[in-house]
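Case study B.
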Amino acid sequence: MAGHVVIDRELCLGSGMCLVYAPNTFAHDEQSKAVIVDPAGDSAEEIDTAVDACPVGALSWAPGDDTGGATGDVPSTAGHGSTAG
Amino acid sequence: MTTAILDRERIKALFDLRSAANVWTGGDFEADPYPIWAKLREDAPVHEGTLHKLTGYPGEAMFQGLPEPDRAHFTAFSYAALDAAYRDPETFASSGSAIDPTTAGLENSMIYMGGTQHRRYRGLVQPSFVPAKAQWWLINWIQEAVQELINNFVNDGRAELNVDFCAAIPVLTITGSFGIPPEEALDLRAVLQDSAAVIQRLVPIVAARREEPKDDLISILVQATMQDEDGVSHQLSDGEIYAFALLLLHAGSGTTWKQMGITLANLLARPEVLARVREDRALLRPAIEESLRWVPTDPMFSRYVTKDVEFFGTELPKGAVLHLNVASANRDPARWTNPDEFDISRQARASFAFGGGPHICLGMHVARAEIRAGVSALLDRLPNLRLDPDAEAPRFIGMYERGVTEIPVLFG
Ligand code: HEM
Ligand code: SF4
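Model:
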């Protein structure tokens, strides 16, 4: 699973499904949008389970050179969270 | 606190799946539907007909998307078909007609909305229901109810957990979050089908919280604001708050009660699994998730087909109702190995017990917190908790609202 996870903030509805399956990777900001707190907080497999669990397809793997994990803004800059591209 | 005021006989009449209050969703269905659903799923991912007819239920049963006698009905059974329907809310809408939120009724609540209208309402309330808020629900409304209910039978050496314990917790949680004291909680449950009566009880509370907010859900709702795409700020009207409160009562009390009973029954039927969970409470989470997958209390939700579409080999005409058999999808061998086995150590994967798509359950983290708190407190306080060998073991019953008959236990 090469690459990293990106969050589409427009699509995210704050369900918290990703927090159930990868609780050390994802959190919510004050608008209840998902943000990434630790790109390697959970195993790549757990993060993949979270991607699969997102009910609205707001999480996706973007191709990249790292070996797995998630990237995104930390909560302090969450207002500009990453978007799928 | 005053849960002794929660009269046992009254709770039984209100909550027994087979009682008159519950028969309209097919509460008297007692067969095991899973072999039938497995066969239907193997035959085709989508069948013509309602789920209860396809299952062989002899009477009429009601749920979301029923009865709708003037529409064609189809039911989807496979994980892939449900996933596709949930993820395409434009083709598979939650309502057959437009929603008018200025009229305060359950039929105009968020669960029937679509598109940006739904996003806006959901965005207003989602912050109170995120995982990080579970602690707020637990401390304010869940934990005390759980402990008081156990106090009622802790010295008896026996109890019937389904009604004496599971049934009351979710009602107390939701009415508590509205600011309604426990002694009035059952009154509200009793008039649940009479929206006007429920609203009547809420009117003075909403007015009081607008005057002076407290640390409860209604206070959050009267203060919540949200900007729409045009930058216009929105607040919930009284009518919108009533509709949302009605939705919470309908969506959050019976469901959580029955799912907690299902979880307990699964564990009690497997003493070695129960022992492991008692030792290591971290296992409670997978045990709850597996119970949600294995027997979701609401096995079916419905969508309205908005255009002619060919769907998994079946032509669905515009205007038809597509019933989504969540329970069958949750045991689809294409997604889970040995799907009919209850196995708390299987690899975690999302099931459809809380639905999918934009309407996925708003209260799922509250529900999980309630079930976790409830089961954990029982394990803490009732040593050697076990099924009563001389009583009938719990059985799963119900068509559109599934749950267990009774959970007779001994302890000590
Ligand atoms: C284990 C217990 C529960 C189960 C199995 C459950 C299941 C579901 C399901 C399947 C849906 C989706 C309906 C659809 O797709 O049309 C849903 C929606 C909803 N549930 Fe739950 N639920 C539970 C507990 C709760 C609780 C405790 C609350 C509130 C405190 C709640 C509030 C809601 C609301 C408001 C919606 C509508 C969400 C929307 O339309 O965006 N539920 N629930
Ligand atoms: S699962 Fe999807 S919609 Fe839910 S919080 Fe995570 S990213 Fe947002």
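Chain B is about 45% helix and 10% strand. The remaining cases will be described in the next quarterly update.
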